[in-house]
Amino acid sequence: MLSARVLSRTILLGVLAVMGLSGSAHSDPLGDRLASSQTNWRKDMGRFRIGVAAPRITELNPAEIARLKSAYATALGMPVELVILRDIPALIDAQATERIDYAMETAAAYAAAYAACECVEPLVAPVGVDGSLGIRSILLLRKGVDEKDLKSAHIALPGDAAKASGFIPISTYMLAGNDTPVVRDNFINAGSTENAEKLFASGKIDGFFGWVPASGNERQPRGGTLSRLTRQGLAKDGYRIAWESSLLRYGPHAVRANLAPEAKLILRRFLVSLSTRDPETYDLLDRVHGGGFVAVGTDDYRLPLKMLSAITGQAKEL
Q1: Fold of the domain spanning 134-246
Q2: What span, in angstroms and rounded, lies between the C-alpha atoms of 189 and 183?
Q3: Which residues form the signal peptide (predicted)?
């Protein structure tokens, strides 16, 4: 007769065997299916679809496009298709409807895509050659202009509020708790940052929104708009920075959130090492920043989502 302890152990082993939890080589159908889906993601996808807005692709010749496609195809071990979209809104729509797997976009475009579907995930973001990770919007005012009462002041935006150049300063300024009616009704559109700088340097406006590169731990703003004003001969004691935003990261390279984890890992490693491993291909991919790529996550893009909410009035949390 079996002892109580042996009998209990025998019953326990039987239950574990039925549940598929014993230490034997018992097959787990669900686990097998999950493992198979992770292994076969290339076969399931067929090709990897990279979305590009039409204005961006015109910067590259056919040989350069072929080189970029080859670099991605080699890294992923699968065919790559370049999906050309007419503009940024079309790119956002293609992401939200999962017609593309990957895109290079602005921070504002990423926020719009996330707000539309919560189905995109940032992998990497550019680093400036100066080590910057993004920018800060700044409000420059002439001496004697009170930032607490701008209703009678002539303040310029660098662009239309519907475009990134105007959207970024307006939304970040509103997030800081500043007077919304003033932002919407009293600021003028200078057409471009360069034109706003010229108007300010010539004394035709009282202030304007500019930008400076930022890393998050800089001691004082420098570069960007400030450097260009100096080159135009405007003395630094003739104006002041009345307000500056939080760090806005450079736009990410983002993928479908439900892309296979292995594919995400491959892409992140490929991009982070690209500037040192293959500088020529890196230069084709990013001709603006020059400092390589760094891994990022959703938390790095909370600010642009809040900016979008400030403009639309629709809150969306990451």
Answers
A1: D-Maltodextrin-Binding Protein; domain 2 (3.40.190)
A2: 11
A3: 1-27
